[in-house]
Structure formats: C-alpha cells, structure tokens
Amino acid sequence: MSSVAILGCIWGDEAKAKIVDVMGSDADIVVRFQGGSNAGHTIICDGKKYVLHMIPSGIVTPNLQCVIAPGVVLNPIEVIDEIKSLKNAGVSFDDRMFIDPRVSLVLPIHKILDCKAEDDCAQKKIGTTKRGIGPAYSDAVARKGLKLYHLYDLENLGANLTKLYNYHNMAPEDLLNEIEQLKMAAKYLKPFVKQTPYFLNEQYKAGKKIIFEGAQGSLLDITYGSYPFVTSSHTISGGISIGCGVAPSRIDKIIGVYKAYFTRVGEGAFPTELFDATGEQIRTQGNEFGSTTGRPRRCGWFDAVAGRYTAMLNGLDEIAITLVDVLAKVGDLKICIAYEIEGETVTEFPAEASMLAKAKPVYEKMPGWDEDISGITNYEDLPQNAKNYIKRVEELLETPVKIVSVGPDRKQTIFL
User: How far is CA 36 from the centre of its chain?
Assistant: First the structure.
C-alpha cells in the first residue's frame, strides 16, 4: 500500500495522533488535509510528551516529511510558535515540512469573530475552541479571506486586510502592526512553501508511503456530523481528495480510530453520556481533558450506532481501538446497539440533531476485567473479557480490529 488514511471516527480525541505516530515508523510522508489549530494531537514517545495543533504528527519521527495541505486553515503566527517550540525540543525541520500556498489564513479578526459568536446569547452556543477556525473557513467560502500566497503580495497586503475588515464592518486595532507581523511571518515561512498537490502525486507515483492524518472526528464533519455542533471542514475520508488535491483512487487503505468508550468536548447531544461515578472514573483513568482547551471531556459508553455510521461514511478497511486499558476495574461494560427515539427502536444515526438529543441508548451488557493491561504486547495475553469486548466491537461495526492501544506510549500498541 502506498497511502493510508488514519481518521478519527467519533467526536475527536480518539488518540489518532498516536496511531499516526506508530504507523509513521515505516512511512515517508504524513499529511494534514483539513482543520487548523483547533486540533490537539498528543504524542508520547519514550516518556517525552509532544502536543501538536497544526503540524502533522509525523514530525516527531526523524526523516519523516510532513505536509500541510491546501484544505487546512493556518494561523501563521501560531504555527511559527509551534515550529520554534518543537525545534527547542530537538525536532529537526530541515527539508521535512511543506506548506501549500493555498492554505487559508486564520487572522486576529477571525478569533474576535469566533469569540463574539460564542458569547452572543442570541446565537446557539456550539462550544468552539474560539481559535477562529469557523470564521476563517467562512471567509474562504465567501471568497473574502486571505491565502498564504497573499502574504507575498506586499504591495496589496494592506488593502486586502482592509477589505476583510470592511467586509465584517470592523476596524483593525492596529493595522500597521498587524501587517508587519504578517510580513515577518511570511519571511519565516517562505522556506516551507511548496505546491503540495504536485509533490504528493509525484511521491505517490514514486512508491512513497503516505499517511493522511485527520483532525477532529467523523461525527464533527460539517455535512455528516451532528450539525450544528460540528467543525467547519470535511473530516471524513472524502475530504482527503478535496483537502490535498490527491484523487480518491490514490487512497489505498483507510483506518478508523475509535476509543474503547466515547467522549465529546463542547456542546451537542451525546446519547451514551455518563453522569455518574462510572463516567467520572473513566474520565480520571483516561485523563480526559482537552489537549487544546484543557476542558474536561464528557465520557460515555461505546456507541455502535454512531460507530457503524462513521465506518460506513469512511469506507473503513480496518479499525484501531484505543484506550482499552482505561476500562480496567470499571465493572460491567455497556455497548449501545440501538436507539429508542419517540418510542421507536432505530439503528440508523439520526440526520437531525434534535432527534439525536431524544435518543435513548439500547444497551448490551458485557463483563469487564480488573487486570492492568498497559504492559501487554501480545493480543493473546489480554484478559478473555477484554478480547470478548474487542471482538464484539468488531462484529457490531462489521470491520476488523487490527490495532489495539493499551497506553499512550507508542510501545503500548498491539498489532493483530
């Protein structure tokens, strides 16, 4: 296989960055195809922790090249800070990272707009990260935003910024300072700028192994997620071609990443959410706090209705199930196999957020396990109840489980 897509299949935070990191050991290129700094990807390698927001997870693997594709929205100041922080941690960027000039920019005005929208009591609260991602995508669709290549048109940079502020009926606090900041960012980022569709297609033809890394989860997709409590881009496998300029026929394998339980950050319905001591135990044992926001994540049982839906949307070839170790000593486990909505039992994920909010989970109970499995490296050595649980997930999602993660370090990974 020359290319592999690794996609989160819940509401994000599935530990997909760890799977990218593990799979990246024999890859050549890792590509981010959507999203922005609202993503928080945590990697632990030999006890060292890296938190990434815009830079692909493969950057911590030496010699692996990383691409920020056109479908990403980029905050130029924040990505420079991220690069500098990683360099200080010993990560090399020499001929290792490329940014497409078509990426849309996240500018100070977008953060202001994001915060105003979230704080406006007249609007529905979405629970965004307030990093300006939604407004940046909105401006791109409205053909009013700035691309990275606009930063190199120095003659018109000020006029383009002014037009953007006028479009939103706003006045910049300090336009001259903002222009200078963007000029400095443009200079710093210049060595990374490359037309990545050409690069990726050439590398694919040359037989290089490419990993397409998703940000956020499938249930946050702008079209197929639990709208309006979604992100502003296409997080499913279909978004790869749009975001990268790589044809669908060149995506050779699709791996879906699921947690052994479900979590969600922000607003929106969550049918299997737990509000009791079990939910708090899972949150504590799983350290369920957002990498980007620090917010405590909402925790609940595995939802096979939502899981089947995202497996179908993405056309999954196989599954990686993560944080299985967190379920130790939780007691009996539950898996949602259907919803009850207005007296009717359904097995399809509802299109309407209002119907999802009414969904009552129909559970199947399974015995749990008490053993610590975080040091196990052979699947056969797992407790029988853990293997039964994984097998049941595999059956319900009609997709084979090929990777089991039992801890945050790359070494804590079992391949089937």
Answer: 9
Confidence of residue 121 (pLDDT cuts 50, 70, 90): very low
Taking 50 as the threshold, does the pLDDT of residue 38 lie above it? Answer: yes
Strand order in the sheet with 413-415: 97-99, 65-68, 29-32, 210-217, 3-8, 253-259, 318-322, 401-405, 413-415
pLDDT score at 53: 86
Q: What is the pTM of this model?
A: 0.92
Band (pLDDT 50/70/90 cuts) for residue 297 is: very high
**76 in Cβ contact with 108 (< 8 Å):** no
Which residue from 368, 378, 254 is spatially nearest to 318, judged by alpha carbons? 254
pLDDT on residue 49:
77
Residue type, 135: P
Residue ranges with strand state E in 270-398: 298-300, 302-303, 318-322, 333-341, 344-346, 360-366
Strand-strand pairing, 48-52 and 41-45: antiparallel
CB atoms within 10 A of CB 253: 14
The three-state secondary structure class of 212 is: strand
Mean pLDDT of 362-387: 98
Q: Examine the residue annotation and report whether 409 is marked as an active-site residue of this protein.
A: no
Query: Does 53 qualify as catalytic in the annotation?
Result: no
Which of 21, 26, 28, 41 is catalytic? The answer is: 41
With cut-offs at 50, 70 and 90, classify the pLDDT of residue 1: low
| Interatomic CA distance for residues 168 and 144, integer angstroms | 10
Convert 277-297 to b/e letters by CB count within 10 Å (16 or more is b). ebbebbbebbebebbbbeeeb
Q: What is the DSSP letter of 1?
A: -
